[in-house]
Write a structure and sequence with these properties.
Largest sheet: 5 strands, mixed
Radius of gyration: 17 Å
Number of helices: 10
Strand content: 15-25%
Shape: globular
Strand order of the largest sheet: 5-4-3-8-9
Helix content: 40-55%
CATH architecture: 3-Layer(aba) Sandwich
Distance between the termini: 30 Å
Amino acid sequence: MSVNAELRAFFDSRQEQIPAEVRAVMQRAARELVESGQADEALTVGGKAPSFTLPSATGRTVALDELLADGPVVLTFYRGAWCPYCNIALRSLQQHHDAITARGARLVAVSPQAPDESLSHTEKNELAFDVLSDIGCETTKRFGLAFDLPDDLAAVYADLGIDLHRSNGGHARTLPIPATYVIDRDGTIRWAFVNPDYTIRAEPADILAALDSLD
């Protein structure tokens, strides 16, 4: 099953469990983000990936330039461990981790979560790749992916027990548009997937094809 087929099955099964008024808020916020055109402003193929150095879940610091010195990088931005769609997508990437590294690439995931939150997430999902913390979404902003939750959606998340203020180190409102990039060794983005609909994610098969197409 493709990751998007799994995501769609999860979405369909979840809808009847969500009260109609909550679904309405989520749907309106999702529609407004799509209509804002922000995804069109994100970095895409041919652009240069901004350099960054971020803390990993295990306490190391990871620099994009150092990763690129060893080969291409698959960089994925996700919303957080509280997002079930992100968890499905990350588990799918983990299943393809060996295939990614066999192509000489490094897989790195970035979220706004504090390192302690990322560590528990990494342990829970047994992720073999680096999970980095971009508190305040400064790196995410440089990729053109950061947006602020509308008030009504932030309230819905709070009512659902999602404490973004805690998990995001005090930056509760800012999240990334989910995105995945394949970056070659000179820092050029060679493949990009950016979709403001968080229920749709990059297919690992497409990532592998992009890596195979690198010179």
